[in-house]
Amino acid sequence: MELSKRQEAIMEIVKKEGPITGEQIAERLSLTRATLRPDMAILTMSGLLEARPRVGYYFSGKTPGSVLAEKLHNIKVGEIKSVPVVVPEQCSVYDAVVTMFIEDVGTLIVVREGGLLEGVISRKDLLKTTLGGQDIHKLPVGVVMTRMPNVITVEPDDSVWLAAKRLITHEVDALPVVRPVRDDAGSLEVVGRLSKTNIARLFVELGEGGG
Ligand code: ADP
pLDDT tens-digit profile of 140-185? Predict the structure, then answer.
């Protein structure tokens, strides 16, 4: 977050003299309270300053960087995830390619009965099998997918920061969003999909000053 010259000046005054009233800050800068109001709103909404009635403004101790980091840790995967596009393990490679085109996704999630996670299949997994010269109408995706327990996942309550970190660390484009099945050792129910597109979209929204 870039602060304007005036906002920087306000921050300096509050750091030195806080708690301090809006009236006093305006005086120090030889401006009216009304002129300062939008800046004070931005500084308090962004979490850099805190305001308490009858006390005034004081420095929250946060930097613009730490405010952004806190935001990324507070937004949950569940808030930005997409619906999962799933196929069964017996689905042919041919049908998987068709599904990718129809659904306009780059990663399919392979599930067994009950929507339980079995694996994932990417564009390149499918391309690779077409090079092998096998009959893609007969070959099931189960043969070429990345299989559990090697699938990297996230849960709805995980932060978007953790999800982005996993996408980068494991060099994959998407993660199944899962919930552990109660009373079942190890099975994961697929409840969504989180891709690099979701992260890019959030990035744009944050950049527009929403969120
Ligand atoms: P592409 O292969 O089309 O570039 P990815 O980079 O997502 O797409 O996939 C690279 C490899 O990682 C593929 O073999 C794929 O099966 C596997 N993969 C994709 N997503 C995951 C995931 N969430 N967990 C584990 N492996 C994955």
Answer: 999 999 999 999 999 999 999 999 999 999 999 999 999 999 877 7
User: 89 and 147, same structural domain?
Assistant: yes
Within 8 A by CB and 6+ apart from 176, the residues are 84, 109, 117, 120, 151, 153, 154, 188, 190, 192, 193
Tell me the three state secondary structure of residue 200: helix
- In short, whether 107's Cβ falls inside 6 Å of ligand 1 is yes
**194 CB within 6 A, ligand 1:** no
| pLDDT per residue as tens digits for the range 23-38 | 999 999 999 999 999 9
Pairing of strands 116-122, 146-147: antiparallel
The parent domain of residue 143 ranges over 75-206
110 and 145 Cβ atoms separated by less than 8 Å:
yes
- How many structural domains are present in the chain? 2
Q: Which two tokens stand for residue 134?
A: 């096998």
